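TL;DR need structure tokens for one chain.
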Amino acid sequence: PGASSDAPPVVVIAEGFQLLHSPEVASQLTHVVVLEMAEAEARRRRTAPRDRALNPNPMSAVDFEQLVWPAHERYHERCVRPLVARGGAALVGACPSTEADVAQLVRRVVEAVCSQSRPLVS
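>> reply
TL;DR here they are.
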């Protein structure tokens, strides 16, 4: 409120694997980029041995198969796919795997949001 039109746009990147569950939160988002992760990669990450930074709470493959992945698929079906279908979200087919890939993706998203003239993802 009261900001000059010359002020640079404010970009807040909110990350959360179930961020769109709440209609109140989803309604506040002006741009949504959804990173798709293959089931095999998600399983590998969640069932990897305990690591303080990368996987502080590993789970069994059975828990992943019976609990996590079915819940993830329901979330995508109920919250993500309808938003993408309405044009309210861009879907990125490959989840970045390196810090450089993450930095590049964030840079592309911020530039696209700020310029409003380029497609959000290529």
